[in-house]
Write a structure and sequence with these properties.
Elements lengths: L15 H52 L3 E6 L4 E6 L4 E7 L10 E4 L5 E4 L14 E8 L2 E8 L4 E5 L1
Antiparallel strand pairs: 1-2, 1-5, 2-3, 4-6, 6-7, 7-8
Length: about 160
């Protein structure tokens, strides 16, 4: 009984070819997994940003009514930032930064209103009609995935993927 691997003819360990095949298969599986999860995280980032914005609209309107003073939602599209502030007292209600260094990684945000700001008056009403519609929109994009938040002058909103 002369065989490879020593006494009893039993082989121990793996050959180099077997190890290379296993490593190659593992690399292929990991590549597909990474691509799948990166698409998921991109879609999820845009959805989360839209949900946070819808919640901030509700908070802005509630604050305006509660303290009986106007509240403005300002978009800074170039820096992927929006803020919710009370202009009379400079109270910051919310400030959201997006992008690589932000809370949520996005590639674009847009408020489809003239001047990129929305003002809730002390009664909690925002006038969106000068822009030709009873509703306004904000869009949040992460790569090819875009979520749109449509809202009316009372801050009621709907989120949809576009």
């Amino acid at each position: 009984m002369s065989g490879r691997g020593g006494a009893g003819g039993m082989r121990r360990g793996f050959t180099l070819i077997e190890l290379l095949i296993v490593v190659t298969i593992a690399a292929i599986v990991m590549t597909f997994g990474t691509l799948t999860f990166s698409d998921y995280f991109r879609r999820d980032a845009a959805r989360r940003a839209a949900q946070v914005f819808a919640q901030d609209l509700t908070a802005a309107r509630s604050y305006a009514i509660r303290v009986n003073e106007p509240v403005v939602v300002r978009f800074f599209e170039g820096t992927l930032l929006y803020e919710v502030v009370s202009p009379s007292t400079s109270t910051e209600i919310a400030r959201r930064r997006f992008g690589a260094n932000g809370e949520i990684e996005l590639t674009a945000i847009t408020l489809d209103l003239s001047g990129d700001s929305l003002l809730f008056d002390s009664r909690g009403m925002a006038d969106v009609t000068p822009w030709g519609s009873a509703i306004a929109t904000a869009t949040f994009s992460a790569g090819p995935t875009t979520y749109r938040v449509t809202f009316n002058g009372m801050g009621a909103s709907r989120i949809e993927q576009s």
